[in-house]
Amino acid sequence: MHKLISYPISLLYYITFVLILSVFDPIQRICYYFFGYEAHKRSVSVLNFFLVRNTHLLGTTYDFQNREKLPNGVPLIIVANHQSLYDILPIIWFMRKWHPKFVSKKELGKGIPSVSFNLKYGGSVLIDRKDPKQALPLMKKMGEYIEKHNRSTVIFPEGTRSKTGVPKKFSENGLKILCKYAPSAYIVPISINNSWKMVRFGQFPLGLGNKITHTIHDPFPIKGIPFEEILLRTENAVVNGIKI
User: Fold this and answer.
1) Where is 144: in which H helix or E strand?
2) Bigger pLDDT: 210 vs 159
3) Are 162 and 199 in contact (CB under 8 A)?
4) Which of 25, 90, 102, 216 is 20 to 30 Å from 115 at the Cα level?
């Protein structure tokens, strides 16, 4: 019954989703080319406000916990488990003050209104998963970027989404490079729950009535800590906060 009811609601959701992306694509371009980074960043924040609100059509609610723990004026490396696209929208909106940037696959860098433009020009990096050597200088660039501007980057060390919520083992390569080139950064572990339920049936229809939670665990500075300890501490914090 849940799945049957979801068909018309999901159709309405996708219509408004595409409309929002289409409207904000030219807005982003105008902001970026005529008014610069800050205007573009604000347009992206407003875009994600509407995208988050659009999920309310599906009965989705959000609980974004412990933002008061986040330090200001330092670069942040946000490390989270990855369950679906719906991990990302709340991070951009609820953490907009910290200018989150993403490490994304290159396929997202073309053909998607609003999304592709933001990834290409908003400070994120696009990597080719089939070419690990190509990814290394881009991760270095991201680390240097957040170090210079005191902004944040989001990395999902599992590499691929978990379709059941069960976390996969963390890969160390990307996180290790970010730590090396953003030495004054703080690690921010985040546990995401229930995002996978949005796509429990696939991309259509979507799951209804889900409460998605993002729990921020205690941030910690990486300076003076061996990377092996950073990885273990971060992975333990994220995984222990996941409820299956």
Assistant:
1) helix 132-149
2) 210
3) no
4) 216
